[in-house]
Amino acid sequence: MVTNPITPTIPLNEDGTHHGFLRLPYSRDDSAWGSVMIPITVIKNGTGPTALLTGANHGDEYEGPIALMELAVTLKPEDIEGRVIIVPAMNYPAFRAGTRTSPIDRGNMNRSFPGSPSGTVTEKIADYFQTVLLPEASVVLDFHSGGKTLDFIPFASAHVLENKEQQAACVAAVEAFNAPYSMIMLEIDNVGMYDTSVEDQGKIFVTTELGGGGTSTARSNAVAKKGVRNVLKHAGIMKGELEIAPSVMLDMPDDDCFVFCCDDGMFEAMKNLGDPVEKGETVARVWPTDCTGRPSIEYHANRSGILVSRHCPGLIKSGDCMVVVAVTV
Ligand SMILES: [Zn+2]
């Protein structure tokens, strides 16, 4: 049996704060015996549950890395009981390149699970989470946002699970995260997702979509920073009261939530994120890029609800997701 080649440069199970790396050997042209050095911080105090916190599962999503870099320098062992494992950039090569997938192997981390100890760089990182870090955790928070090609209203979400007790625990953690919106999602294409591995191991899992457009905002970062602390408090790891504000509950029941583009051209949003939308209403238009005198092509909502996601940046291609409409519960 092949064991995972990643070695941590710090102890994963000692009291105190340890900053270091998950070192993954990666031999290449510019470094014969080189490594990928994935930053990790472990903060531990006594016995208690373990939280595993990750960002940049996709390399161009920034709220997670920002909130977790900050948490790694501000959270003190005396603030907690238990252990917090922080990996701000899970797909570290993608994070450094500012791209969704890894520049080394084009690996999409959230389609690479359960991974392989003898696979590509991305598969080896996935396998390390699958076999080493996840089994240690009881609560798992994985930050996402829209990256360079989508923008979202800020929400935390849990999935519809067969185990209803586990689902209820995940929903309670999502409510504790307390983003302005909270979503219960039916994941249609869940093969290879980190989410599926976490849930299959029976963990309490929170994921998010907090913004997008290839950057973050003061508002979206504030949601991330409050959310991670609330989840740690909810899990009984961090001391102190939860900070709770109103959160709108959303549902994405089926494929009618999505509007996909069938043309190439210039994208004109006809609704802002968070706007109410009626079924049949024009949500976006696509303009030709090569001439004047031709009308735009209109796209309509397949259901009523609110606009939770839109395409970025200004140009769009056939097959791209244009907008997503979710239902308020
Ligand atoms: Zn993502």
Could you write a compact summary of the structure shown?
This protein is α+β, with helices and mostly antiparallel strands. It has 6 helices and 19 strands.
What distinguishing features does this structure have?
single chain; 329 residues; alpha+beta; 15-stranded mixed sheet; 4-stranded antiparallel sheet; 6 helices; 19 strands; 21% helix; binds zinc ion
Structure commentary:
- It is a single chain.
- The protein has 329 residues and is of the alpha+beta class.
- Helices cover 21% and strands 30% of the residues.
- The chain contains six helices and 19 strands.
- The chain has a 15-stranded mixed sheet that branches. Strands 16-15-13-18 form a four-stranded antiparallel sheet, with no helix packed on it.
- The model has no long low-confidence stretch (mean pLDDT 97).
- Bound molecules: zinc ion.
- The site of zinc ion (ZN) has 5 residues, from loops.
Task: Report the principal-axis shape.
Answer: globular
Give the amount of beta strand, in percent: 25-35%
Give a short account of the largest sheet. Answer: 15 strands, mixed
Low-confidence stretches: none
- DSSP helical segment count: 6
Distance between the termini: 48 Å
N-to-C SSE series? Answer: EEEEHEHHEEEHEHEHEEEEEEEEE
Give the integer mean of the pLDDT values: 97
Radius of gyration: 20 Å
User: What helical percentage do the residues reach?
Assistant: 10-25%
What's the total count of β strands? 19
Bound ligands, named by name, code or SMILES: zinc ion
Structural class: alpha+beta
Give the SSE map:
Blueprint: E1 7-8, E2 16-25, E3 35-45, E4 50-54, H1 63-74, E5 82-87, H2 92-97, H3 121-133, E6 139-142, E7 150-152, E8 155-159, H4 164-177, E9 181-185, H5 194-200, E10 204-209, H6 218-234, E11 248-252, E12 258-260, E13 265-269, E14 276-277, E15 282-287, E16 297-300, E17 305-311, E18 315-316, E19 321-328
Parallel strand pairs: 4-5, 4-6, 6-10, 8-9, 9-11
Antiparallel strand pairs: 1-2, 2-3, 3-5, 7-17, 8-10, 11-19, 12-19, 13-15, 13-18, 14-17, 15-16, 17-19
The structure holds zinc ion.
